[in-house]
Amino acid sequence: MAKTTPTAAKNLLTTYDYINPKPDAELVRKSIVYKLIFILGIDPKDATPADWLNAAMFAARDLSTENFLSTRQIHEKFKKRTVYYLSMEFLMGRAFTNSLINQDLYGAFEQAFKELGLNLADISEQEADPALGNGGLGRLAACFLDSLATLRVPAVGYGIRYQYGMFKQEIVDGKQIEKPDLWLDNGMAWQFARPAKRFPVSFGGTLDTSHYPPRWKPAEQINAVAYDEIVPAFGGQIANPLRLWTAHTGDLFNLASFNEGDYFSSMEAQMKNETIANVLYPNDATAVGRELRLKQEYFLVSASVQDIIARHLCRYDSIHTLPEDVAIHLNDTHPVLAIPELMRILIDDYYLPFDQAWAMCQKIFSYTNHTLMSEALEKWSVDMMAQLLPRHLDIIYKINHHFIENVVRPQGYDDDFIRRVSIIEEGEQRQVRMAWLAVIASHKVNGVAKIHSDLMVSSLFADFAALFPERFTNVTNGVTPRRWIAVANPKLARFLDKHLGGSGWLTDLNQLNQLNKLVDNKDIQNEFANVKHAAKVRLAEYIQREMNITINPNALFDVQIKRIHAYKRQSMNVLHIVHRYNQILNNPNADWQPRVFILAGKAASSYNEAKQTIRLINDIAYFINHDERVRDLIKVVFIPNYSVSLAELIIPAADLSEQISLAGKEASGTSNMKFALNGALTIGTLDGANVEILQHVGAENIFIFGNTVEQVQTLYRNGYNPYDFIDNDPELAQVVNQIAQGAFSPDEPHRYHKLMHNRDEFQRYADFRSYVNAQAQVDKLYRQPEKWYRAALVNMANMGYFSSDRSIEDYCREIWRIEPVSEQELPRLA
Ligand code: F58
After folding, report:
1. Which element (helix H / strand E) includes 809?
2. Res 272: pLDDT
3. Which of 114, 452, 591, 595 has its Cα between 20 and 30 A from that of 775?
4. Residues of the chain with pLDDT under 50
5. ipTM greater than 0.95, yes or no?
6. Catalytic residue at 370?
7. N6-(pyridoxal phosphate)lysine (modified residue): where (predicted)?
8. Is the dihedral of CA 340, 343, 349, 355 positive or negative?
9. C-alpha span between 709 and 691 (Å, rounded)
10. Which of 286, 300, 246, 245 is nearest to 88 (CA)?
11. Nearest CA to 480 among 189, 91, 131?
12. How far is Cα 487 from Cα 485, in angstroms, rounded to an integer?
């Protein structure tokens, strides 16, 4: 442990004048000790690992702060057109290791901790994993921020700093228990508080339409206060901000009651409002707490739009130049209220005529759709919106009127068409269709994989595609190789450095295709097999330590990790596990390939079927893992509390990646890319980005099964009946009956009756046989290691396309029209 005393440390280091040249281990050690003493006020001899982490994070933050500040200066100096990425979710994962790798400081920090008698990897494990998102959509936003910074694109992310992120999942007696996620409890050294950056956000009240523009007299106001998180570029001089808003009590609270002198009720309203930034909706299924959710969405966009305008006016003295300076991207419909909010400000505060404000909006906004599933499409009741945001509802009506009268009617469409495209859905409860508003206001609308974008145009937005065919496009998702190889799988990174002649692949992932020349080389296959094996040992140790389950790293690791949802068909995975178990019991002496089935994922707290699925997986795991007869041939592990950091541990260890959603339902998927990038083979349906992965890796290197979108639609059209499949497949019928009749839940035999005998909306029974056959092919290939590792290398070699750098380049070119900071614009290093 360090012997440094406060007085000795005082002279060590004050500011970041050590940045250039890059600090060595000694300087880093001094900086860490300095932060511990003078920022945290902790004597090194009393410091806990969490204290050391915080000190180290402050030290690392210093090192990117200069880049962060100078990036802002460059943007200002060259008036760089900027994209503002609005998202209710950012699943950033841990910041510390990522920042060290992006700044090439890992070695220096590792050495510094060694000198302090500590281990960097252990210290890094202390960091909370900020889970400010539900799943793929939030993680995509985080990959995109990494790529935006690395590509030097002028960009700001805007989100909410939820006090409680995604709940912490515990498994008790096989059931999911939700606990609060206290990610801020140990402080958050990575973010700067910006108490001066605050904007009032108003709610409720009345609209006085006797004036033009109408006057909104809100009932309540709350302040949005900013926290800035640094998003460091890989290897560069750039760092962009992620600005997260918290709700603070201002002096502007309940205006009406405060003015009437009713201090207590004004405080009450205030307390209620402060809950706005309290929790992330762990809501992947149905909407609950709708009013609070609507308030959160408005809170995000109101603060962000005000901030965007303030930033613009620092550079230009006119609001009219906004569309040249600003692109605002809507990550799904959650931030769509940004459209009426910008309209409101332009009309009410800057006195722009409606048409002019509308023309500006249409140049500024673009929107990504992440789902075609109707239950996930946001609609807000007109009544609620009238209560909470009367001026915005009024503007939405005007937009709708303008759209119908100026765009739709002149083209001769009938009333039925007009009813379908109207932003307002008529019915008992009138609703605002947020996706329609997004499409009507945006100059570009994109899906997230080719098949999804095609379906978007042919189904969900077909009417709009008839009106504006040029508006719709595709940007296939991608993932950042910095997080998903360099941070998650350092041994694989070394392997790639060695065989690709350096680390250029990290910023030019197409370089991976040089591996294609090496895939038949036995030594390289073996070397990769060793990398994989080491990752499997690492995961096996975790599972042993945390769950007390022993798994064999030589078994095939078959992994499905993602939100638990009926369309993702974890229960079809279970059908296969039970089927395999039956086969082994029937034929115990056959030459079975040992497998470990690994699953993880959270179920939305209100989604019973998903929770039952988790329980079923755990019941089956308990039963099979304790059955002596199957020995080590099958193990089933449900790892609790899936998160970005767990994904970093699990993905490198996977042999087989389960991407088994019903065709047409998974917009893209991104874990499919992370797995293939880490040399796992995919078993998957022709859904989402699986289709493009197939095109890139070739049919012999992926296990595709199941019905196509067309076949799925035909089945639906003909009145899908699950018993057509169950009754015609005795092995399937046996599995269904076992589960439904309590073979794995003897204490409550009917526990899974409903789960097995529902209407099978996602056609697991129709795809079962083809899935089982594909699994047999998996076994066969795995028993030929040369072929398996060859296929794994081919997968990696052809994943260049799936870098989020490519996605961001597509967005910059096709959608945002944004230029990165050029070499010439970068400041010269001394
Ligand atoms: C996901 N959506 C898609 N939504 O399901 C996945 O296919 C895609 O790869 C990914 O987006 C990125 O494009 C998703 O994660 C959510 O989590 C919503 C959050 C808010 C409530 C409704 C679900």
Report:
1. helix 804-810
2. 67
3. 452
4. 1-18, 251-253, 284-288, 830
5. yes
6. yes
7. 674
8. negative
9. 11
10. 300
11. 91
12. 6
Provide the CA 457 distance to its chain's centre, in angstroms. Answer: 24
Q: Is 670 a catalytic residue?
A: yes
* Phi, psi angle pair for 427, to nearest 5°: 150, -175
Q: Whose CA is nearest to atom 11 of ligand 1?
A: 137
Q: Which pLDDT score, from 0 to 100, does residue 15 have?
A: 41
Nearest ligand 1 atom to the CA of 689 is: 9
Asked whether 540 and 652 are in contact (CB, 8 A), the reply is: no
Instruction: Please choose from 288, 370, 446, 456 the residue to mutate so as to test ligand 1's pocket, defined by most ligand atoms within 8 A of CB.
Output: 370
DSSP H stretches of helix in 548-651: 570-586, 608-625, 644-650
The closest residue, in CA terms, to atom 22 on ligand 1 is 284
> From the CA atom positions of the chain, what is the Rg in Å?
27
Residue 607 phi, psi (nearest 5): -110, 95
* Residue of minimum CA distance from atom 23 in ligand 1: 284
Catalytic residue among 246, 670, 682, 685: 670
What pLDDT is stored for residue 579 in this prediction? 98
Q: Which residue has the tokens 């609070």?
A: 292
Helix H or strand E encompassing 170:
strand 168-172
Residue 757: how many other CB atoms lie within 10 Å? 15
Instruction: Give nearest CA residue, ligand 1 atom 4.
Output: 137
Structure tokens at 30: 């001094």
Phi/psi at 825 (5° precision): -80, -15
Given the residues 563, 569, 579, 806, the one annotated as active site:
563
DSSP helix/strand/coil, 31: helix
**Would you give the end-to-end CA distance of the chain in angstroms?**
36
Is 180 in contact with 605 (CB distance < 8 Å)? no
Peptide bond into 213 cis (omega under 30): yes
Whether 626 sits among the annotated catalytic residues: the reply is no
Per-residue tokens: 15: 């500011």
C-beta separation of 480 from 507 below 8 A:
no
Helix (H) or strand (E) holding 168: strand 168-172
Residue 158 in 3-state DSSP? strand
Which neighbouring-strand residues pair with 160? 245
Which helix (DSSP H) or strand (DSSP E) does residue 367 occupy? strand 365-368
Q: Rounded to whole angstroms, how far apart are CA atoms 452 and 596?
A: 32
Number of alpha carbons in the 13 Å side-chain half-sphere of residue 665: 21
DSSP string, 192-205: EEEEEEEEEEEE--
Could you confirm whether 532 is annotated as catalytic? no
Query: Which residues, other chains included, contact 527 with Cβ-Cβ below 8 Å and sequence gap of 6+?
Result: 495
Per-residue tokens: 540: 């096996």
Tell me how far the alpha carbon of residue 287 lies from the centroid of ligand 1, in angstroms.
Answer: 14
763 vs 747: CA distance, rounded Å: 29
Ligand 1 center to 344 CA (angstroms): 29
Taking a C-beta distance cutoff of 8 angstroms, is the pair 390, 206 a contact? Answer: yes
Burial of 627 (0-12, 13-18, 19+ CB in 10 A): middle
- Ligand 1 pocket residues where CB is under 6 Å: 134-137, 140, 283-284, 370-371, 376, 448, 477, 666-670, 688
What confidence tens digit (pLDDT) does each residue in 84-114 have? 999 999 999 999 999 999 999 999 999 999 9
d(CA 389, CA 437): 16
Would you say 202 and 276 are in contact if contact means Cβ atoms under 8 Å apart?
A: no
Distance, in Å, from the CA atom of 704 to the CA atom of 680, rounded to the nearest integer, reads: 14
Model confidence over 628-642: pLDDT tens digits? Answer: 999 899 999 999 999
> What distance in angstroms lies between residue 153's CA and the mean position of ligand 1's atoms?
24
* Cross-strand bridge partners of residue 357: none
Alpha-carbon span 55 to 72, nearest angstrom: 26
Closest atom, ligand 1, to C-alpha of 368 = 13
Calculate the alpha carbon distances from 783 to 383, 654, 780 in Å.
62, 16, 5
